[in-house]
Amino acid sequence: MTLEPPNSPEDELDAAAALELVTAQQRDLERRMVEGLPLILGAWAIAWLVGFTMLWLIDGLSPAFRMPLPLAVVAFVVLMAGALIVSVVVGVRMGRGIRAGAASAWTGAVYGLTWPLGFAAIVVLGNALIINGMPPELSSIYYPTASTTFVGVMYVIAGGIWQQKPSVALGVVMVAVACIAPFFGYPAHYLFFAIVGGGVLVLATIYSAVWIRRGRRGAASWNPR
Amino acid sequence: MTDLDPVIHAQGRLRITAALATLDRDESIAFPRLQDLLGMTAGNLSTHLRKLEDAGYVDVTKTFRGRTPVTYLALTKAGRRAFEDYTDTLRTFLGGMP
User: Which residues lie below 8 Å from residue A131, measured CB to CB, with a gap of 6+?
Assistant: First the structure.
């Protein structure tokens, strides 16, 4: 479709087509800029589903079955580290060719560095509690709950900064998961994290994939590719 | 509908301007990434960008990343305003809220 020059007899059709082109182009771009998002969410979904199930299997099915503790912990750490690596690699790839100005760079840097700051604080606080007599069962409740609360809050903040409602929603659900899980007690709380936390991440993966695909299909008529 | 900006009111340049308007005000995008996102040929994109740059709507910054030259593009203040005026005019013409 070619647009008519201004003042042509077909001005009305022309205006509608132009506005549709603007909308389709911006919708397509918005989605293509984050097309790696389902990959990132999918990696975390797998890490949560499998990782927390491994931790649950340490005592969850005893005495019928006991997952060796070192195996479960190593699997959990490897899965979480793997998801983190996927996030960084895909995130960098999504941001390629975009140069942030001073204000965006500052926001991104402060937000990015808040992640290690928060996790460091959780670990140090946990160690301080252990030194002050926190039993192992309680520390197995504390670490995932504190971490998940922090992750949820960071998702809410990200949604606020970059104006993404789904991120706010995911964050709120994560905080709720973190707050409800401890009521199941050890080791059932691990299964709750795996099924509900992991399940929410699976839904977020599907939602983001559908959102990206649907928006792109709408723009296809304008895109010469 | 008499005051539609002729610089923006052409399919190629409208797509480029709409795309650049999605960036934050202090962000810019490298030429190859924009080319990839828009699915335009380098020649086509360059031609349209030159017209937008001549009108003062697009800021073209040539820099180096290591030893590789990179061209970054962003809407100027005037370009962003022109795009907003353009879409407002369309919406007003179509009977919607500006």
Answer: none
Alpha carbon distance B76, B73 (integer Å): 9
For chain B, give every domain's residue range.
Answer: 11-76
- Mean pLDDT in residue range A216-224: 53
Contacts of A92 in chain B (CB under 8 A): none
Residue A135 domain-assigned (yes or no): yes
Domain count, chain A: 1
Residue A19 in domain: no
pTM for this predicted structure? 0.85
Q: Does B90 touch chain A (CB under 8 A)?
A: yes
The model's confidence at residue A219, banded by pLDDT at 50, 70 and 90, is: low
User: Which residues in chain A touch residue B6, judged by CB atoms under 8 angstroms apart?
Assistant: 5-6
This model of the complex carries an ipTM of 0.86
| Separation CA A63–CA A139 (nearest Å) | 22
CATH for B11-76, options being 1.10.10.10, 3.40.50.2020, 3.40.50.300, 3.30.200.20: 1.10.10.10
Cα gap A77→A83, rounded to integer Å: 10
CB-CB contact of A72 with A55 (8 Å): yes
